[in-house]
Specification:
The chain is 41% helix and 10% strand. The protein is built from 7 helices and 4 strands. The chain has a 4-stranded antiparallel sheet with strand order 1-2-3-4, covered by helices on one side. A hairpin with a 5-residue loop joins strand 3 (96-98) and strand 4. The N and C termini lie far apart (48 Å).
Length: 133
């Protein structure tokens, strides 16, 4: 015999319980869809990595002085007190690595997050990559 609380869970689904009030059902379905980030298609539409600024545009706005002529250029690291250039930045991809403090990342978004101590979503909004629906 199944205990009483398990029987109630098996016989009642959220959609069956909410069919008495159709307006409330639609609202709850929308809330459930937006809260489930892994399965929601609307969540994936608000983040557009193509809108991320190029490394040259981003670092030009921050007034960093780069040394070197290749794709990897060096500058003074903003993550620790630095007197000699120790931060290498890939000017095509935005990847960076400091050879003194060990700070590293894969793109401009990671650099912006670390520099301003922001969360992922806040950094995306700040760079214009994240759009609200």
């Amino acid at each position: 015999m199944i205990p009483q609380k398990n029987r109630a869970r098996q016989g009642c689904t959220p959609y069956l319980a909410l069919t008495l009030n159709p307006e409330r059902t639609l609202n709850l379905k929308a809330e459930i869809m937006l809260s489930d980030f892994n399965k929601s298609t609307k969540y994936k539409q608000v983040f557009d990595l193509k809108k991320l600024p190029t490394p040259a545009e981003y670092f030009a706005g921050l007034d960093y002085q780069f040394k070197g002529n290749g794709t990897w250029r060096t500058t003074i690291c903003p993550f620790h007190e630095d007197s000699k250039p120790s931060l290498a930045v890939h000017m095509d991809k935005g990847a960076f690595k400091c050879f003194s403090c060990g700070t590293k990342g894969r793109d401009v978004l990671a650099f912006h997050r670390l520099l301003h101590k922001m969360s992922f979503v806040d950094a995306c909004k700040d760079l214009g990559v994240w759009e609200a629906l």
